[in-house]
Specification:
This protein has 344 residues and is α/β, with parallel strands linked by helices. 53% of the residues lie in helices and 8% in strands. It has a six-stranded mixed sheet with strand order 1-3-4-5-2-6. The longest helix has 17 residues. The N and C termini lie far apart (94 Å).
Length: 344
């Protein structure tokens, strides 16, 4: 270690320049690592990750492993059971008693990430997402060090009571450490996550999401205060949610007619109604691709997507429960002709 390193450390400490302070400390740790003094290098890294060790407060502009993301105002349609759990999380955050670590598990498209954004919006907090691209490193041992620094970075943020941290798709760091197919390096990474969660500032709200809950390390599961299951959608829930999504997007389009009854009939044709993420894409695309001079074209496009029949046979449409007027909308054939052909 050079004299310049010591001078810089003192300088950055006095200036409360956390970014400079940390970078200088890491340079020192790296120098010891290159010299073969691995124990001292690890010790410096451990000090930086220890909540009891002084770490200058950092500004959001200096973040390395997390980035701020904007929360939009899109509707968040959820089943009542999940809504009740979300209200509980909001209440727990406002009580500030240390119930602050939550895991959202469920299939893709169930609304896990969007719900985190919604929670941040309700609480009036800034939302920061972990940048896994910068966190995971191919160099042996570096990922664990990065995770330690990640939690140091989180705990050093100003006003932790105004922050939500999102570990979106934490699966890469949370697989079972005893899985024979799992690399030892990722096992060590999971251990680093465990330590970081234990030392998390209890005013900071942390939410992780996963699609692979059954493969989660059990010790990691126990670190979360509550596990929220996002697979609790009934068929009726999804039909109602599709209507909410449609109404949201219809407000953005001109010269488009509303026919909620027909819309819900079309959605009901699906043997398995997809989760909200996919529903949103189907509905949005049907509207975006529709002819601006045809107020019902989006319904025809939607029918083409969800129907298993490639041809709009009048008899098939009737068998699906569509009225003569609805068949006219979906086919462009006049009501009188529809009636005549169906009678024949």
């Amino acid at each position: 270690m050079k004299k310049a390193n010591i001078i810089n450390l003192i300088k950055y400490y006095v200036e409360n320049n956390d970014s400079g302070f940390r970078n200088e400390a890491y340079q020192i740790a790296n120098e010891f690592d290159k010299l073969g003094d691995y124990q001292l290098s690890e010790y410096i890294m451990a000090l930086l990750s220890n909540a009891s060790t002084f770490i200058p407060q950092i500004n959001k502009e200096d973040l390395i492993f997390v980035r701020k993301i904007e929360v939009n105002g899109d509707p968040l349609p959820l089943p009542e059971e999940i809504k009740a759990d979300i209200v509980g999380i909001v209440n727990a955050a406002e009580y500030g008693i240390g119930v602050n670590r939550f895991l959202f598990q469920g299939a893709p498209g169930t609304g896990k990430t969007e719900t985190v954004k919604h929670i941040a919006r309700i609480l009036g907090r800034d939302l920061f997402m972990v940048d896994f691209a910068s966190l995971i490193d191919s160099k042996l041992g570096q990922t664990g060090k990065n995770i330690a620094e990640l939690f140091n970075e989180i705990n050093s943020l100003l006003t932790p009571e105004k922050i939500v941290i999102l570990f979106d798709e934490i699966d890469a760091l949370a697989l079972d450490r005893i899985d024979s197919k799992d690399l030892r390096e990722m096992g060590r990474a999971t251990t680093s996550v465990l330590k970081g969660l234990d030392e998390l500032n209890n005013k900071t709200l942390l939410i992780a999401t996963t699609n692979l809950y059954k493969h989660f390390d059990k010790a990691l599961v126990r670190r979360f205060d509550s596990i929220i299951d996002f697979n609790r959608y009934s068929r009726e829930d999804l039909i109602d949610i599709s209507e909410i999504i449609l109404n949201h997007y219809l407000s953005k389009f001109k010269n488009v007619a509303r026919n909620i009854r027909l819309f819900k009939k079309i959605i009901s044709l699906m043997e398995v109604i997809p989760y909200p993420g996919e529903l949103k894409n189907i509905i949005k695309t049907s509207l975006a691709f529709s002819n601006p001079n045809d107020e019902y074209d989006y319904l025809r496009r939607l029918y083409s997507v969800v129907s298993t029949n490639s041809r709009k046979s009048l008899k098939n449409l009737q068998n699906h429960g569509f009225t003569v007027r609805e068949i006219e909308i979906l086919t462009g054939v006049s009501k009188s002709q529809v009636s005549r052909e169906l009678k024949e």
